[in-house]
């Protein structure tokens, strides 16, 4: 049983019975039985709505597959409005650029090249929040193409071990004092970081 939204807890296990002071510390009382459980908290799980969305594009198709409409909430403003109130946070409202997806963050995956021996992707993370920078950002990408180590330009990356996940996973984050901060958006421009990812191996299979 978790204490609230966002918590994930282990099973209860028996531990030494708890003792407590009574009668102003003059006597110790011991309970009959005590259990313990370790819990972790995630703001991602606590949020009722996502805080980011994913858009896709390829070199052979001029059309972009955008984030789904109302991915993180719906735009409650006039069409010509420059800023909107985001509802992805359960604790406070945030001022965002008005978009159809209304997510503070968007991850764009663009396939630039796809050959038999290697493929190349441009990964772009955009910040639509008008008042918040994201310091020490990181993004996890799950994709079967990461079955081999990737070469990443101007990002840090690693392939963390996974359990019960069918596809390989890559973790990306910024370089210190270079692009480790994802700056907030301006009225006419979003804050963003982007770099190419190059991987040798089999060509990508599209589904």
What is the compact description of this entry?
This protein is an all-beta fold. Helix content is 2%, strand content 43%.
Protein model, in words:
Helices cover 2% and strands 43% of the residues. The protein contains one helix and 19 strands. The chain has one helix at residues 43-46; strands at 7-9, 13-15, 19-22, 27-30, 34-36, 39-41, 52-58, 61-65, 83-86, 94-97, 105-114, 118-127, 134-135, 138-142, 151-152, 156-158, 169-173, 181-182, 191-200. The strands form seven sheets. Strands 8-7-11-12-19-15 form a six-stranded mixed β-sheet, with no helix packed on it. The mean pLDDT is 81. This is COBRA C-terminal domain-containing protein. Belongs to the COBRA family. It is a lipid-anchor; GPI-anchor.
Which regions have little confidence, pLDDT < 50, spanning 5+ residues? none
Give the beta-strand count: 19
* Major β-sheet annotation: 6 strands, mixed
- Tell me the Rg in angstroms: 23 Å
Q: Provide the β-strand percentage band.
A: 35-45%
Structural class: mainly beta
Main-sheet strand order equals 8-7-11-12-19-15
Mean pLDDT across the residues is: 81
Fraction of residues in helices?
Answer: under 10%
SSE string, helices as H and strands as E: EEEEEEHEEEEEEEEEEEEE
Distance between the termini: 39 Å
Question: Total number of helical segments?
Answer: 1
Overall morphology: extended
Pfam families: COB_C
Main location: membrane
Domain COBRA C-terminal: 51-78, 94-182
Family: Belongs to the COBRA family.
């Amino acid at each position: 049983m978790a204490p609230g939204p966002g918590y994930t807890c282990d099973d209860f296990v028996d531990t030494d019975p708890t003792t407590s002071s009574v009668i102003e510390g003059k006597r110790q009382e011991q309970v009959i039985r005590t259990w313990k459980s370790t819990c972790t908290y995630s703001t991602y799980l606590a949020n009722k709505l996502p805080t980011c969305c994913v858009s896709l594009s390829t070199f052979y198709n001029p059309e972009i597959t955008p984030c789904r409409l109302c991915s993180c909430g719906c735009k409650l403003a006039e069409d010509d409005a420059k800023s909107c109130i985001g509802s992805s946070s359960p604790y406070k409202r945030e001022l965002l650029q008005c978009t159809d997806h209304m997510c503070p963050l968007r991850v764009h995956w663009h396939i630039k090249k796809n050959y038999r021996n290697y493929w190349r992707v441009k990964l772009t993370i955009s910040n639509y929040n008008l008042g918040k920078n994201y310091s020490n950002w990181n993004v996890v990408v799950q994709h079967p193409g990461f079955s081999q180590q990737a070469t990443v330009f101007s990002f840090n990356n690693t392939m963390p071990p996974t359990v019960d996940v069918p596809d390989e996973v890559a973790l990306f984050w910024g370089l210190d004092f270079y692009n480790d901060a994802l700056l907030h958006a301006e009225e006419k421009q979003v804050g963003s970081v982007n770099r190419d990812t190059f991987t040798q191996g089999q060509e990508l299979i599209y589904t």
